[in-house]
Amino acid sequence: MRFIVFGDSKGKEKSGINEKVLKKIMNESTKIEPSPQFIVVCEDTVAGSNKEEVLAYQLDRFRNIIENYHPNKLLLPIVGNHEVNIEPIDDRFEKVLGQIYNDLNPNSYLEGYNKTVYYKDFEDTRLIILNAFHFGSTHKINEDQLSWFKEAASKPIRNKLVFIHSPAFPTGAHLGHCLDLYPDYRDAFWEIVDNCDIDIVFSGHEHNYSRRIIDGSFSNGDFCYKRKVNQIITGGGGEKLRDKYKSKHGIVVAPIAVYHYLIVDIESDYIKVCAISSKEKKLDEFIIDKANF
């Protein structure tokens, strides 16, 4: 199974998208063989608006661009801050997102979140999508989501990947203004990641590519992480790039300010992730051995 991942494609055009960069990335992604089966977007795909009709226009335009390059392929959305007008006071923007992605057919979802907290299964792989920008819970995975996430992640499935726009452990550009804004909730989230054998956590928000290993050295007095888990930040879809770099603990690939996308390959005995720039340069590649699962 193969799919691609990218995020943070917003821009200053009327569409709210950096269309030049997005089209470049999409064009490059059509050249890979075999072609991807579906696409996961780590959101901030558009600039957003305080008017539902403007947001709907932007999201529809975004989908049309993707469709031009990857027709009839499933698109899995994740809520970013710009999709819900930065600091939402209600769920009306989530409902707009749901209208644009009304063809989304998740295997399960959390009631009350407009199908923005859900999982999708592909044979022996589960993709779990969380919402860090639900109204009243900005940059927080609250108790409702934590309970749902624990149940979804606890099932004995071979491969489990998590997607959330706001990183648990940002590297610099948004340090102190991601899930780390609420460290107790962040730690409760990552304890589930650790205990439930999540393979990789993908995020966006910081406009670069980076990879770090979260392991026992990140533990605190309440609990100790037992596993090494890759956290990937992929925010190079078109937004203004940043490579600010302060939090260096566990870093494998320091922030790279370059437009890019990810190719994720899942085979019977491994998961491979490759980060490719819009100029077709390989930025990073790693493999998780699943032969002994």
Automatic annotation (TrEMBL):
Per its record, what are the GO molecular function terms?
hydrolase activity
- Top-level taxon of origin: Bacteria
Entry's Gene3D superfamilies? 3.60.21.10
Q: What is the lineage of its organism?
A: Bacteria, Bacillati, Bacillota, Clostridia, Eubacteriales
InterPro entries for this protein: Calcineurin-like_PHP, Metallo-depent_PP-like, STPP_CPPED1
Q: Which Pfam families match?
A: Metallophos (PF00149)
Name of the protein: Calcineurin-like phosphoesterase domain-containing protein
Q: Which organism is it from?
A: Clostridium beijerinckii (Clostridium MP)
Coiled-coil residues are none
Span of domain Calcineurin-like phosphoesterase: 1-209
